[in-house]
């Protein structure tokens, strides 16, 4: 079973979601959280930081576990979702509340 770490960046009460590409097999053109698969040797927290750096150019410095999400009944994976707090990085993509 695969494990995924996903973050919901929040700033001033507003959250940032990404739009899935048209070609995606599951949920094309739907809004989604940022994140990805936990790689071998990584903790969930390490994967969360890495994914947000790769996808947004930000490094979360605080996060709160929200809970697991079942992505698809046909895809055996666990998605652990986090609300992310303060972060460092050049990205201003997270909207203000």
* Gap between N and C termini: 37 Å
Reported for the largest beta sheet, the result is: 5 strands, mixed
Count the helices. How many? 1
DSSP strand content: 35-45%
* Count of individual beta strands: 9
Give the low-confidence spans.
90-97
Overall geometry comes to globular
Report the radius of gyration as a whole number of Å: 13 Å
Mean pLDDT: 79
The H/E string reads EEEEEHEEEE
Tell me the structural class: mainly beta
> How helix-rich are the residues, as a percent range?
10-25%
What attributes characterize this protein structure?
about 100 residues, mainly beta, five-stranded mixed β-sheet, 1 helix, globular
Report on this model:
This protein has 97 residues and is mainly beta. It has one helix at residues 44-56, and strands at residues 2-11, 14-15, 18-19, 31-32, 34-37, 58-60, 63-69, 77-84, 87-89. The strands form three sheets. Strands 1, 2, 5, 7 and 8 form a five-stranded mixed β-sheet that branches. A two-stranded antiparallel ribbon has the order 3-4. It starts with a strand and ends in an 8-residue tail after the last strand.
What is the strand and helix layout of this fold?
Blueprint: E1 2-11, E2 14-15, E3 18-19, E4 31-32, E5 34-37, H1 44-56, E6 58-60, E7 63-69, E8 77-84, E9 87-89
Parallel strand pairs: 1-8
Antiparallel strand pairs: 1-2, 1-5, 3-4, 6-9, 7-8
Task: Describe, in short, the structure shown.
With 97 residues, this protein is mainly β. It is 13% helix and 42% strand.
